[in-house]
Structure formats: structure tokens, C-alpha cells
Amino acid sequence: MNRLKSFLKWGALSLCVLLVILAAAWAISKMMYPTQAQREAIAEMESLPEYGGDNAFALLWSLGYDVPDAELEQVLEEDVQRFSETPLVPDPEEEAVYTGFDSVKTDYASLSPSSEDRGMFCGDRDESCLEKVRQDLDAYQAMIERNRRLLDRVSRLDEFEYLRSPFPPRMNAPIPAYQPASYLRTRHAVEFASGNEREAIASVCREIQTWRRLSANSELMIDRIYGIANATKHNGALLANMLSEWPVDQPLPAPCDSALAPPELADVSLCNAVHGEFARVAFSVRTLDQYNSGLLDRLLMPVFIDAEASAGLSAEHFQRYCDASTDAALLADRQPARATQSSVARFECVGNLYGCILSAIAEPGYSQYESRTLDHGAHLRVLGTLAWMRQNAGVGRTPKALLEDRPDALKSPERNIVFGPEGRTLQVPLYEPEFTGDGRERVHVHWSIPLPPALYEKAGG
Fold first, then answer.
1. Most exposed among 76, 95, 165, 171, judged by the fewest C-beta atoms under 10 Å?
2. Is the Cβ–Cβ distance between 325 and 319 less than 8 Å?
3. Does residue 58 come out as left (phi exceeding 0), alpha (psi in the -120 to 50 range) or beta?
4. Band of the pLDDT at 437, cuts 50, 70, 90?
5. What whole-number distance in Å separates Cα of residue 402 and Cα of residue 406?
6. What is the pLDDT at residue 301?
């Protein structure tokens, strides 16, 4: 009996000591974090990039509506105000997770194509937009004419320099409808198939140039990823198909010079985009207390999460996408070391356990986007190589020699551009894997574009 009493006494004492140690560790952790380095990282991430020229967001926001140019900014400003006035936390009695708002742009006439016309536009998975429109060129010419007003508005995006959303950085902040911005590709294909080949090629190069610029100068990951896909994966493929049918002695239109220039750091970096991503994460953790309706929630939340410490963790992670070592790797077309899931068994997590868990879950997810931007750079090198080979064809060098002699700026130390097995394409391996047809396995693939006959690499040549 005495032993039991002694055991209980020492057990209780040990538990009290442990609780005191944990409380002290929690208090010290709260005082230590965020560190000065993390506060500096927060300040860096909160400092938005500077761009010249005009913001395309107002036009992109109202793209599918017949809003006069003079009213675009006014409509956007009113919509931002309406959204800002919606409650951050929905009424518990409402079934919807987020409270919506009525956009001013819907007061104007819709320019959206009919469902039948939408099905005619070239989609992301169309292997050859040219082949698609040639199947019924008359019908496509009529469809393009029916949607001329919308397509003319989309073409105006080339007048802008950057994309920045003025909406508050809430996770449910609205984004533009991007689909109409991809419709121009079909008009360019129809123009080429109708015999206006030089004009069509110039238009596609302008489209590549536009989205190459807007994507690089944007602060939301969705803008970044949509932009690079629209620039090279889709319009780049269309341009290559056009050039495979165009005589190599025809000089490319002037817009192609800058559109197909070798990739620079801005083309492959995620630095600008992560500023917007940080803003959304920081806003979320700083407003978590507004979601706590019960007394227990309000008491426990400060124990398990520190908003500024969580913002510091996030800022440190996103800062990696802007540092010099990352820039050097990207310029060398080398994938930077991928972020791994951080352990929560470290001292800074004692006073911020929930923040550490959230950070550990989110961090690895952004690394995949670096693969996409590097593949965008690879697309640009392939397209630039095609343009250079065309320009230098007919000077006594074989296609193989032309490919080998291309400028160093069009070469990568990590992956080479080669002729396809049949000698009629150029191809480069991609970093981002794709799912197989059954969706069960991710495999690495090549990006391949067709060559004009004058640049075919003959067997043994």
C-alpha cells in the first residue's frame, strides 16, 4: 500500500514537472518564433513585384461580357467591393461553404458562344487544331464570324504587360473565366487554313508572346500555369504545325522574333507567382480565429497555432523559389531539390503545432509547378530551334548539322533536343510526368513537333 502511495506521489510529481517543462517550452517557442529571418522573409513575400505597363486583369475579368472599354475598371472595382463585403465565414444555417456575390459584369450582354460553338473551338487535348478546322472549313469560318466580338476582345490582351488580381487574398477569391482566352487559337487555325498563312503565323506568335509575358508577370499560380500552357504547349504546337507546311525560304513574321527567343529566368521562375500564393496562405492563418464559434475553440486555438509563426514558415518556404541558388538551377534547366514534408518534431512546433502540420502538408505540392515552368522553357528552346533551323536552311548544312550548330542559348546542359525516330520531328524529354490512359501510372514523355520536309533528317544523313 505504501509502495502504491509512493508510486502515485512520484507519478503525480513527475507529471507536474512534465507539464511545467512543456509550458515553459511552449512559452519559449512562442517568444522565439517567428525568427528575425522569418520576419524578413515575410516582408520580402509581402513586397509585390513591380511591373511596367498596364494590368490585364480588368479585361480578363469581364472578357465574356460586352463591357465597354471605358467601364472595365469601374466594373472590376465594384465587384471587388461586393466580394469584400461578403462574410468571411458563411452563415452556419446556409448549406453553401462559401457565400457568393452578384457580379456587375452580368448586367452586360453575354458574349459567350453557344454550346454548339464551344464544342467547335480547339480544346486542350486536340492534337491538331489545323486538322480539326479543315474538316469543315466553311462551318468554322461562320463560327468565327459569329463570335467575332468576343475574339476581338481576347486579342486585346496583347496590349497589357502583367496580371494582378485586386481581390482580397482569400482562398475563395474569384478568378476570371480562362476558357475564352484560349479561343483565339481556333481563329488563327481558320485563318491559316483559309490561305492567310503569314497573317496567321504572325497572330500565333503574338499569342505566344502575350501569354509568355502575362504568365511570367503574374502573382497567382493558376495564372502562371494557365499562361505557360496557352503560350507554348497549345499555341506553340499550332505554330509548329503551321510551319511544317510553310516553305523554309519564307522568313518568319516580325512577332516571331521575340515570341521564339530563348528562355530567360522570368520564363522558368515561380518567384512572382509565389508572392500571391503566400498572400493567400498568410491571410488564411491570420483569420483563423474568425472561424472559431465555440468557447473551447477560442481557448484552444492560441495553444496550437501561432498566426505569425505560421506565416513565417510559409514565407521561408516560398522564399526558396526566389533565391540565387534556385535561379542558377533553373537557368541551367536543372530541377532544384524538391521540397519534402517537414517533420513536426522540432522545437518551433511546440508553440505552433497546427501551423507546422499545415505547412508540412502544403510545402511539397508546389515543387511540381517548377517542372511545368522548366518544360515551358524546353518548349521555347524547341520552337526557337525550329525557327533557327528554318532561317539557316539551304546553306549547305544537313538538318543534323543545323541542329548541332544551333546557338548555345537554345541548348540545355540537362536534356538535349533530338530528331524523332522517323527523322520528321524534333523532340525533347519533359520533366513533368503524365498519367497513362488508365490514370494509374505516371510516365515521363517527350514533347514533339513536326518539321517541314526541307528539314527532315534522312536515315544515314
1. 95
2. no
3. alpha
4. low
5. 6
6. 64
Give ∠ CA 318-322-324 in degrees, rounded to 5.
Answer: 135
> Given its phi and psi angles, is residue 396 left (phi above 0), alpha (psi -120 to 50 degrees) or beta?
left
CB 348 within 8 A of CB 38: no
Contacts of 345 (CB under 8 A, 6+ apart): none
Greatest Cα pair distance, the chain, in angstroms, is 103
- Chain CA centroid to CA 416, Å: 25
Question: Of 384, 307, 313, nearest to 342 (Cα)?
Answer: 313
3-state class of 34 per DSSP? coil
pLDDT band at 405; cut points 50, 70, 90:
very high
How high is the pLDDT of residue 32? 58
Rounded to whole angstroms, the Cα distance separating 281 from 206 reads 35
Whether the Cβ atoms of residue 45 and residue 315 lie closer than 8 Å to each other: yes
pLDDT digit string, tens, across residues 212-225? 999 999 999 999 99
Any idea which of 45-49, 95-99, 162-166 has the lowest mean pLDDT? 95-99
CA 400 to CA 393: how far, in whole Å? 11
Q: Classify strands 434-435 and 425-429 as parallel, antiparallel or unpaired.
A: unpaired
Cβ burial 113-125 (10 Å sphere, 16+ → b, else e):
beeebeebbbeee
Q: Cis before residue 34, ω within 30 degrees of 0?
A: yes
3-state DSSP of 381-431: HHHHHHHHHHHCCCCCCCHHHHHHCCCHHHCCCCCCCEECCCCCEEEEECC
Amino acid at 6: S
Cell numbers standing for residue 378? 524546353
Q: How many percent of the chain have pLDDT more than 90?
A: 65
How many whole angstroms separate alpha carbon 320 and alpha carbon 308?
Answer: 19
Nearest-angstrom CA–CA distance, 419 and 446: 11
Helix (H, G, I), strand (E, B), or coil: what is residue 160? coil
**pLDDT tens digit sequence for 329-387:** 999 999 887 665 566 666 567 666 677 777 766 666 677 899 999 999 999 999 999 99
List alpha helices for 33-113, DSSP H. Answer: 36-46, 57-61, 72-84
Distance CA 152, CA 198 (A): 19
Under the banding of pLDDT at 50, 70 and 90, the label for residue 117 is very high
Grid cell in block for residue 417: 533536343
Q: How far apart are CA 191 and CA 184, in angstroms?
A: 11
